[in-house]
Protein: Histone H1-like protein Hc1
Amino acid sequence: MSNFSQLKDLVLSLEADFEKFYDKGNSAAGTRVRKGMQELKNMAQTIRTEVQNAKNTAADSAPKAAPAAKKAAPAAKKAAPAKKK
Structure:
């Protein structure tokens, strides 16, 4: 859960710079926002990788169930013969 806390802290730390950039037009704050968003992107990728690895590890160690029997496909119906006039 540490990653989640770090993620929240990062977003909250950017709040003031977002306000300065969007409300006051401070371009230096925009640079800090861009830097923070890059850190957020990197952190998100790290978390995604950790979650995927945890899922794969759990799936590998879990007992595998027997595959379900497949149902046979229904037979194709023949078209009715055309009526003669």
About this structure: Residues 2-56 form one domain. The two ends are 78 Å apart (CA to CA). The chain has two helices and no strands.
